[in-house]
Amino acid sequence: MEPFRVYILGCGSALPTIKHNASSQIVELRGKMFMVDCAEGTQVLLRRSHIAFTKIGSVFISHLHGDHCLGLMGMISTFGLMDRRMPLHVYAPKEYEALFQAQLDLFCPRLDYEVTFHPVDTAARQIVYEDRSLTAETIPLDHRVPCCGYLFREKPTLPHIRREMIDFYHIPESQIANIKNGAGWTTEEGTEVPHERLVTPADPVRSYAYCSDTRYMPKLHQMVEGVNLLYHESTYDKSRLDKARLYYHSTAEDAARVARDARVGQLMLGHYSARYEDETILLNEAKEIFPNTILSDERMVIDVK
User: Fold this and answer.
1) How many CB atoms lie within 10 A of CB 219?
2) Is the pTM higher than 0.90?
3) Active-site pick, 37, 67, 213, 254
4) Under 8 Å CB-to-CB from 164, ≥6 apart: which residues?
5) Residue 67 a catalytic site member
């Protein structure tokens, strides 16, 4: 099974702290690397995580608050200094397009690689990226500015060939593709060998949902139903519910309710308020509702499985 990993580059909120960087992640799937949000300091965390800048082909921005996007233009400039040639695709709220182009013209007027901006309608649920192996879909969220999360979903793969059966029936290599796509085999004696005897099931499809800044949404679970791994902001604990509602953020309890109702495989908390020197209070609060919960932390790498 191909690696499907999430690298945490930053999991703090807007106020800088020594402990946490602001929001940024890398999603790795089938040899491709996608960045999700790009706060100040992201380049340093990329270095510390030993992630090659050249491997990042796309950046997905959830919303236009500084702790999620102010590192983007600096990173684009750095890519230019590194003699990048591969195109970079930026998916971000449509409200950013004019300013993005103005910043690009001002700070990066002579790049030797192409930067393409893809405007995202944060209020719509739609596939904004697709290739042969995966899709990236928007998740409309409820924040003070237009905001969306992103759902990365693997495409189904073909079943695995049972090599011992291929050898037993002397099936030529030229027929392997047909068998993977559902064909059976007929021996020289006329015996029909069904497709199911020649293969084992395909790997299960995996998925990862990134829910950036949002206050609790009672129907959010419907959009992330059954994902293997859910990242959901947990800026506050439930004793500060008033602040969560005021600033359009979530508590750890809110995040756990979404995970429980969506029947996800695992919940990962993040976007911690700077008031918490120890996020254990958030972890314990979430675990009371959804036991399979973990805390995100800088330089953490988690497999989606």
Assistant:
1) 8
2) yes
3) 67
4) none
5) yes
